[in-house]
Specification:
Blueprint lengths: L5 H13 L9 H14 L8 E2 L1 H8 L3 H13 L3 E4 L3 E4 L7 H17 L4 H19 L3 H17 L4 H21 L7 H15 L3 H22 L3
Antiparallel strand pairs: 1-3, 2-3
Length: 232
């Protein structure tokens, strides 16, 4: 007869053998939402643009119901807005949201860079800086904007956390909507490129505290600039 100590172990073994691990696969609607989030972050979709279910469904090869679900998800993230009897539009973010967004950015970007990362992850940060330099040399302001987004995404990716990457994807989409107004100034992104270089160099040299301090000061100035531009 099994002892009392043995019984729980045997039961646990039976339960473990009978269990089936399930890997959660994102739904089609979630993948559509991810694609739209990417297009927002890259600046392909601008504030106030009208989105139609039929067009996106055709472009992505999915059903209109799937697109409708994706729209609902992005509406909860305040990236899209549905106007009754008018349709779905890319959100025009309110000035009052700026501080909240930058609070999130300070929390996840600064902590990520101060913890450092693998050589591969650090190389991705450098690649984003070099991408920005090439865009600046070509006077490609949109490309420079995308490179700047990639830079900040790569900083969060240092942490190798899927959850943080998901949060940052939404934040980057929101930031591109804010930056759309700012980029009427052709030098908006190029003004930050030098600081991206300094932050990256500190990261590469292993001076993580300096990298974090530079990034924190960067984000504080960026918030002040956005607050001024949006008239808060």
């Amino acid at each position: 007869m099994a002892s009392a100590d043995q019984k729980p172990q045997q039961k646990a073994g039976i339960d473990g053998a009978g269990a089936r691990l399930r890997l959660r696969v994102p739904s089609v609607a979630e993948r559509v939402a991810e694609e739209l989030r990417y297009q927002l972050a890259e600046g392909f979709l601008v504030p106030g643009a009208k989105l139609t279910e039929a067009t996106i469904a055709e472009d992505l090869g999915v059903s209109r119901n799937t697109v409708r679900e994706a729209f609902a998800e992005l509406a909860t993230e305040r990236l899209l807005v549905r106007h009754p009897n008018r349709g779905v539009y890319v959100a025009t973010l309110e000035a009052g949201d700026i501080h909240d967004v930058y609070t999130v950015r300070r929390a996840i970007e600064v902590s990520s860079i101060r913890a450092g990362g693998s050589p591969e992850r650090i190389a991705a940060v450098r690649a984003a800086v070099e991408e920005g330099k090439r865009a600046a040399a070509a006077n490609d302001n949109e490309g420079l904007g995308s490179a700047n987004q990639h830079f900040h995404g790569a900083i969060v990716a240092l942490a190798e956390s899927g959850r943080l990457n998901t949060i940052m994807a939404q934040v980057l989409a929101e930031m591109r909507l804010y930056f759309h107004k700012a980029t009427m100034n052709a030098h908006f992104y190029s003004d930050w490129l030098k600081e991206n270089e300094q932050i990256c160099s500190a990261l590469e040299s292993g001076d993580l505290e300096r990298a974090g301090d530079l990034l924190l000061a960067y984000l504080n100035r960026s918030e002040q600039q956005q607050t001024t531009i949006h008239g808060e």
